[in-house]
User: What shape does this take?
Amino acid sequence: MQMNTPPRSTIRLTRRGRIALVATGAVVAGTAVAVPLLTLGEDEPAKPTSLVIPEGYRASQIYPAVDKALELPPGTTKKSLTKAGLKLPNDADGNPEGYLFPATYPLTDTSTPEALLGQMVDTANQRFNGAPIAAGAQRNAMNVYQAVTIASIVQAEAATSTDMGKVARVVFNRLERGMPLQMDSTINYALDRSTLNTTLDDTRIDSPYNSYQRMGLPPTPIDNPGEEAVRAAISPTAGDWLYFVTVKPGDTRFTDDYAEHQRNVAEFNKLTKARQSGSPQPGAKT
Assistant: This one.
């Protein structure tokens, strides 16, 4: 029996965001992957010798990171897309989102934005187009680009690596039941932000990435996922879950019962309000 989606004014499938910390010599995002800026000598100015792209970075974050690493004017890397000759799948329609593979890339005096972007896309193609990912995508009746799109949602939504397979299962279960995905991460992508708070007005925005209003997957990936998220997308954990919410760090609750999900969201809201007011609740981390 097909399940109907509860009213949009009350449902919140997910409530989590990413924290980005920027400090001298390091960038921490999502899964706390450091981006080192290695110095050449104590008396010389800091100069990066490698660029680390963290899992879950969006293209809009990667372009300025390349500009900074190569000491180029802002916007240079994004403009270079037209001449980079990236080997992207046809479904991407020239948009490299999802295929700027998160990894460490060495920098030399001859590094260019085109070369770095090309290395990222070539690495993604090597990882995604071979077995077992290509075979896994086919096994789930989808192409590799669709698998990467699901993986990008998993990367954005899963609070921990152990939750990735469950988040992927929620995506599949909702698609199979003809339910909108209702993922806050796709709203955040449309609005180019990361936040825990998605309002009713947010869910009404006119965007192909509004998974509250649009059925199916978003038109492109919403970030650049790592291999772990892609593996989760092709081999989701078995389960009947339709909803999940990260109540507090380390406590993500999955359920197929909407009433139970409402109770979990209420607890999340209570803990969030307590943190914002500076009054800790039992079990809340402050």
